[in-house]
Design brief:
This protein is an all-alpha fold. 69% of the residues lie in helices and 0% in strands.
Amino acid sequence: MAVALNVSTFLPADRSIFKVIVVFLIPLVTLLFVAHGNLGTVIKKPRLGDIPLIIIVVVLDMGYSLAIGGLLHYVLGLPTQANAAYGETMDFGFFALVFVQLFGEELFKTNMLLGILLLLFRRSGNRKSAVVIATFVTLLIFGLAHFAAYDSLAQILLIQGLGSVICLFAYLKTKNMLVTYAAHLIIDLIPFGLNALGAVSGGAAAALILL
């Protein structure tokens, strides 16, 4: 159920208030229902010791995305596409919606991972294989959920999908979704912020990250 109810990410690739609220509320309600109202199962108080991990995740994630994006576009000649949000007006309302939507996306991903993991572990009793399979399936579905935004199968599978393993590893290590949320926020806000400030052109900012 935790997986089935998280269909909100497959909505059209606009950052409308309606979509953002749906992307946020459906995973949140799902988690509250499954965890009997106890958000502490996945959301914990941040620790100072989490900061180095967050920084490492951001650097690795952005480096991976740039490398794979370059490989797909310049070496293999496959189409790649920047986040459609670069065409939007980046005002206070835009960034407020980013904060809410990314929280919903992390809930979506975490719910799906835990739901699949629990199902597999109950059937097999093998925790290691359950973690590996649940991680792979989560990455695959999370990548495909971005198809409306990027319309490039290779990109969403390798960058939005497989690339998310770095953030997912941070959750598996800390059992705290706020760590992955913080990393995801920084990864998106760096190019968005540079573009909004006019420090670089929209195209150059988009090239910093394809998330």
